[in-house]
């Protein structure tokens, strides 16, 4: 591990929201206090973000107060620089509020506001110094963005936003399970875990559909998922194949979900949003559309450097499926290469770490003195959001 | 008659209600909006009385050496509580004026739309006459008619 001062540099992934539980009334849990909740059934989420943009500053400030305070990172603001990521085309009013809160309320020494993709691109170019262009696919909770980067500058005119994200996939899964098997509309946390454990991306959609219809042993797609009851079973899990009762009912008292086509039909929405009625292109189509709207001499460079980041890329089979679909839609004389980093969720954080160690980091940031002298204008000039 | 289609399913007397295109659009729109929710139910603390303003903990004020700049009260809160829709309208964007949030939205797919049975999720071939939902076999049609949601 890398060391600066006495602190090893590592990343932790902490939920950026608050939780309320039906069982522990009167208490609101902030961020990673989620782990303290003994019974996370019917968990209520309070997010500062709506559709991917920061709208609720009350909640965000409570999360930050907790993270920066004495129970967590004990930040000494006067000596601390902060790199913070923002969504693409972030609204001016939100950017200005962010400046005010970081500089005037928390009083950080210096701030760098960037798009997450810029950090991912920086990280990618560090591994591939000979490449000039790359296209970042960032598929997260609220939406998915396809962003081409050329020499560390994003190509604004080719950015595409698909309004499908992890939240939509989980909500859809909750609806179909509630209709077909068991009412789980309140159980966002549990079904999110089901989605992460059981869903995968199919390489051949109709073939998997046919397998999922079969009965008994031949149905290799079918899985029985044991739901947690938070007293004996703390975490849900898939029943091992040997223990599955393929015909008839289970004798044990556990609550079981039988999942067949849901396993791959849910992530399929990322590839075909029209499956549920959202009239937008899927990820591979959007990648090709975005690149084809760029100058022709640059296109081969983008096809060779497709980078997948964000939580949704963790579905098994995601990378291979994106590759095969993009390959089908691309002229044969272009090379296609799709990269899924080891940890797609922290990839942009790693980029941020590299940037903070750069020599020209000092030129990229805006210090508190700069802000007090020039106000929002200097942030608008220096930060490319 | 086939024994599966008991006449009791169709409302007695009256004509069969058929949802027309705008109603189907509204229904689809409502379903898609529901997919954007963070939560299904209400806040568990919604009905409870707010805990009265607590006196600041003695340890808090003793700990922090420096004072936090006071927030400017109501004006601050009002500005910082707008919802997404309000902020988007404030920006006043149009797709024509250069790359922005509105123009970045993905265009409709060029591939044909696929349809799935509303009941079991497998690829469907048939459409319900009254409400336009898809189904794949007569058994699923039966389930659909039993669980039909009559809201607009």
Automatic annotation (TrEMBL), chain A:
It is found in: Cytoplasm, Cytoskeleton; Nucleus, Nucleolus. GO terms for cellular component: cytoskeleton; nucleolus. Keywords: Activator, Cytoplasm, Cytoskeleton, Nucleus, Repressor, Transcription, Transcription regulation. It comes from the Eukaryota. Belongs to the actin family. ARP6 subfamily. PANTHER family: ACTIN. This is Actin-related protein 6. It comes from Molothrus ater.
Automatic annotation (TrEMBL), chain B:
The gene is Znhit1_1. Residues 113-141 form the HIT-type domain. The keyword Zinc applies. The keyword Zinc-finger applies. It comes from Molothrus ater. One of its GO terms (cellular component) is nucleus. InterPro entries: Vps71/ZNHIT1, Znf_HIT. It comes from the Eukaryota. One of its GO terms (biological process) is chromatin remodeling. Residues 1-73 are annotated as: Disordered. PANTHER family: ZINC FINGER HIT DOMAIN CONTAINING PROTEIN 1. One of its GO terms (molecular function) is zinc ion binding. Keywords: Metal-binding, Zinc, Zinc-finger. This is ZNHI1 protein.
């Amino acid at each position: 591990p890398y060391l600066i001062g006495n602190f090893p540099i590592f990343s932790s992934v902490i939920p950026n929201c608050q939780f309320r539980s039906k069982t522990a009334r009167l208490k609101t849990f902030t961020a990673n206090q989620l782990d303290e909740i003994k019974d996370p059934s019917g968990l209520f989420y309070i997010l500062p973000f709506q559709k991917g943009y920061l709208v609720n500053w009350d909640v965000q400030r409570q999360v930050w107060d907790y993270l920066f305070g004495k129970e967590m990172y004990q930040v000494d603001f006067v000596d601390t620089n902060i790199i913070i990521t923002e969504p693409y085309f972030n609204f001016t009013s939100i950017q200005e509020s962010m400046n005010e809160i970081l500089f005037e309320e928390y009083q950080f020494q210096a701030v760098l506001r960037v798009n997450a993709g810029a950090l991912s691109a920086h990280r990618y170019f560090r591994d591939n110094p000979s490449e000039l262009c790359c296209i970042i696919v960032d598929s997260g909770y609220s939406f998915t963005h396809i962003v081409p980067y050329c020499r560390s500058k994003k190509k604004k005119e080719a950015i595409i936003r698909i309004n499908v994200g992890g939240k939509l996939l989980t909500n859809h899964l909750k609806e179909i399970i509630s209709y077909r098997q068991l009412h789980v509309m309140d159980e966002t946390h549990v079904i999110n875990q089901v989605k992460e454990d059981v869903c995968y991306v199919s390489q051949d959609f109709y073939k998997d559909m046919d397998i999922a219809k079969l009965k008994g042993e031949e149905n290799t797609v079918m899985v029985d998922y044991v739901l947690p009851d938070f007293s004996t079973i703390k975490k849900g899990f898939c029943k091992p194949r040997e223990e599955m009762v393929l015909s008839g009912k289970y004798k044990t008292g556990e609550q079981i979900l039988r999942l067949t086509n849901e396993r791959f039909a849910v992530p399929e929405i990322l590839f075909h949003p029209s499956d549920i009625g959202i009239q937008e292109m899927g990820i591979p189509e959007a990648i090709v559309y975005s690149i084809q709207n760029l100058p022709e001499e640059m296109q081969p460079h983008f096809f060779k450097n497709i980078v997948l980041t964000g939580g949704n890329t963790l579905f098994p089979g995601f990378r291979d499926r994106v590759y095969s679909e993009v390959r089908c839609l691309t002229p044969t004389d272009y090379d296609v290469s799709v990269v899924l980093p080891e940890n797609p969720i922290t990839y942009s954080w790693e980029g941020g770490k590299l940037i903070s160690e750069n020599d020209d980091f000092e030129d990229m940031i805006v210090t508190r003195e700069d802000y007090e002298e020039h106000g929002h204008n200097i942030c608008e000039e220096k930060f490319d959001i | 008659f086939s024994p599966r289609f008991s006449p009791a399913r169709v409302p007695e007397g009256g004509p069969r209600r058929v949802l027309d295109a705008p109603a189907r659009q509204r229904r689809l729109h409502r379903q898609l909006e529901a997919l954007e929710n963070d939560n299904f139910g209400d806040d568990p603390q919604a009905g409870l009385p707010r805990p009265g303003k607590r006196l600041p903990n003695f340890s808090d004020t003793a700990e922090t050496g420096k004072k936090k700049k006071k927030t400017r009260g109501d004006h601050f809160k009002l500005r910082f509580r707008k919802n997404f829709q309000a902020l988007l309208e404030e920006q006043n964007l149009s797709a024509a004026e250069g790359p922005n949030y509105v123009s970045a939205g993905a265009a409709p797919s060029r591939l044909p739309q696929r349809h799935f049975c509303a009941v079991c999720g497998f690829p469907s071939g048939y459409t319900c006459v009254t409400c336009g939902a898809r189904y794949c076999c007569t058994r699923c049609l039966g389930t659909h008619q039993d669980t039909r949601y009559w809201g607009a």
